[in-house]
Amino acid sequence: MKKFFQEIKADIKFKSAGPGQKLTESVGERAPKERPNQPALRQPRQGPTDEAQMAAAAALARLEQKQPRARGPTSQESIRNQVRKELRAEATVSASTEAPGTNTVPEAKEEGSAHLAVPSVCFTCPLTGATLRKDQRDAHIKEAILSHFSTDPVAASIMKIHTFNRDRDRVKLGVDTIAKYLDNICLHPEEEKYRKIKLQNRVFQERINCLEGTHEFFEAIGFQKALLPVPDQEGPEEFYVLSEAALAQPQSLQRHREQLLVAEPVQATLARQCRVFRPSPMASQFDLPGDFFNLTAEEIKREQKLRSEAVERLSVLRTKAMREREEQREMRKYTYTLLRVRLPDGCLLQGTFYARERVAALYAFVREALQSDWLPFDLLASGGQRLSEDESLAFNECGLVPSALLTFSWDAAVLADIRAAGAEPDSSILKPELLAAIEKLS
User: Fold this and answer.
1) Where are the beta strands (DSSP E) in 152-286?
2) Choosing a second label site near 391 at 20 to 30 A (CA), which of 117, 171, 209, 362?
3) 155-175 pLDDT, tens per residue?
4) How far apart are CA 249 and CA 186, in angstroms?
5) Which of 442, 378, 113, 430 is nearest to 274 (CA)?
6) How far is residue 196's CA from residue 240's CA, in Å, rounded to a whole number?
7) Which residues contact 403 (CB under 8 A, 6 or more apart)?
């Protein structure tokens, strides 16, 4: 195979060398044939001919069919890579030596330079309202929680406990233990032993000390660190002791306990990135960023588990219902979906959703964009399938991932009432502020 490509390269170089000459001719015999008055023109180096490129491509295709990929890298593959590198190097040298005005090799376009339907998946911080990219949200939320300590240390410490600690089971165990401490204080305010928490206690170390934000919470609700003597022990030990001011307000302790129990992790919400486009024949074409296809570690593990199950199912006969369930499961590998709704005037309303959100979320999104948001309407998927607002189906279960185009349609009863009144439904139904920011789909 190496000899074959060497012959191709030699043939290309031979054809680009210009006219030949006889070996029996001498220098003197060739002299009269030359034109001394005409300056010698330097022939630009030509690239491989179309025939040579087609022949090389055909040979590579035949070689790839004969050579199975499962065997890993082979010597023939190394030869092909080397030939490609040499041809690229020769093309670069040829382009650099050509005179100005001659044909040059065009530069390759960067991948992802095309206009995207959305630049990326974005999120909104519930604390600051800032719009964040996927790689910015965690750091921004942490910074927002830490800055909240200056205004409300109790709420900030609770958010830190639930957000900074990923193990939900461990968080629940620690929160329940803290709630038990506060319950004992509220139920037995006269008992001094309940107002003291030994930091070196095994339960405290295993359930509370290991969680971020717990120490800030104790200090925010009125506990103070102190060294106290311990019976039957020589040296003192460190305790959390509830202050007299905090003990005098048991209702505050009870309120903080409830806040701690009902709190949830602070999570950025998915930004819809609402956009409106003019009518365009490119409505069904979606150029999505990589965020729509990247998988997290948890998603990769789930995908591996599904593939293992698929291998086991190959040896089992399956019914039609089983096959349909497997197809729906295959659609669940997407995290996000980009949906467009074609309105009666042809304009396109676009938004970003989680693939596992329900159809009702799309109805709510469209209704927020309408001038008359109280009028009922229908949304039709491809093929005229009507999506019901009351259904609990998710987008991935309806086949609306990773992107889809839907059609807006007035409810039949509403349309009949409008026409019975001798009028026609207004084609422009969006809010004026959305129409003012209308864009061209490119």
Assistant:
1) 196-198, 223-228, 237-242, 269-270, 275-277
2) 117
3) 999 999 999 999 999 999 999
4) 10
5) 430
6) 6
7) 117, 286, 288, 292, 337, 338, 339, 340
